[in-house]
Specification:
This protein has 276 residues and is an alpha/beta fold. It contains eleven helices and five strands; from the N terminus they run αααααβββαβααβααα. Strands 3-2-1-4-5 form a five-stranded mixed β-sheet, sandwiched between helices. It starts with a helix and ends with a helix.
């Protein structure tokens, strides 16, 4: 081997006995920690989010360094990028004005809720998922899945959100113009809960961008990564994704790289501190 590489035997053994430098040790430790975080976050995070998590731990590192290490060791996010919209706005129900008007900012929890429907393929057929997001915390406060995309689907998601959050004061409820949300029964529920309805303009997905984004993430990080044999299997995996991963563990750049639950907790602690 020495002859092939053109080095002396003594030089080789000197190199073999040479202690590992401090820089090399730090590099190994950093690489090991990056791999651990990558696996812990379901192989979904790229270098920007992994960099933020390292900095949380007190590691001083740049994103370019993290990206280079990930590239060298073949650590690539397994996210798939594709999305398709659902709901049909061709119906005879009355629709509401777009009160939100793409102002995706809230000052407190339960001030603005966003609602939408998406679909999940299974070997048994489609599973439809209705979700409601709190715009302030980005937390999914209510959701429901069923084999049919009916008004009952969205009503159950709304009822779950109200039961969990018990909002005090009016909530601006924004959705698209789909027949499920425009139906008399759903609108009656909004009046019962004293919510202010708002609807996207026809054919404008940007008016409900936050919900479109969540369902896109759900598809990329879960649905397109797996094949579900049954609707019940899909429901279980979606429950785990939303209730365990998305709300409690997945960090969001829009929340200062905090999870929805962390962001909500920090807000409540700050409010208590100011009140005290």
């Amino acid at each position: 081997m020495c002859d092939v590489l053109g080095v002396s035997r003594s030089g080789y053994y000197t190199w073999l006995r040479r202690p590992v430098s401090g820089r090399a040790k730090r590099r190994r430790q950093l690489t090991r920690r990056i791999y651990q975080i990558f696996v812990r976050t379901r192989r979904l995070y790229g270098s920007p989010k992994i960099t933020q998590l390292l900095r949380r731990e007190g590691v001083r590192v740049g994103q370019k360094t993290v990206a280079r290490i990930m590239r060298e060791h073949g650590l690539r996010s397994r996210v798939v990028r594709k999305y398709k919209a659902t709901t049909d706005s061709n119906h005879a129900y009355p629709v509401h004005d777009n009160r939100l008007n793409q102002s995706f900012e809230a000052e407190r929890p339960n001030q603005i809720w966003m609602a939408d429907i998406t679909y999940v393929p299974t070997e048994e057929g489609w599973l439809y998922v209705a979700s409601i997001m709190d715009l302030f915390t980005r937390k999914i406060v209510g959701w429901h899945a069923d084999s049919r995309m009916t008004k009952a689907l969205v009503i159950k998601a709304l009822e779950q959100a109200v039961c969990r959050e018990r909002p005090k004061g009016p909530v601006l409820h924004h959705s698209d113009r789909g027949s499920q949300y425009a139906s008399h029964d759903y609108q009656q529920k909004l009046r019962e809960y004293e919510m202010i309805p708002s609807m996207s303009r026809r054919g404008n997905c940007y008016d409900n961008a936050c919900m479109e984004s969540f369902h896109s993430v759900l598809k990329r990080e879960l649905v397109y990564q797996e094949k579900f044999k049954t609707r019940d299997e899909a429901k279980r995996r979606i429950w785990e994704y939303i209730e365990v991963w998305y709300n409690r563990q997945r960090i969001h750049s829009s929340l200062g790289y905090m999870t929805p639950m962390e962001f909500e907790k920090a807000y409540n602690q700050k409010r208590v501190s100011l009140a005290g």
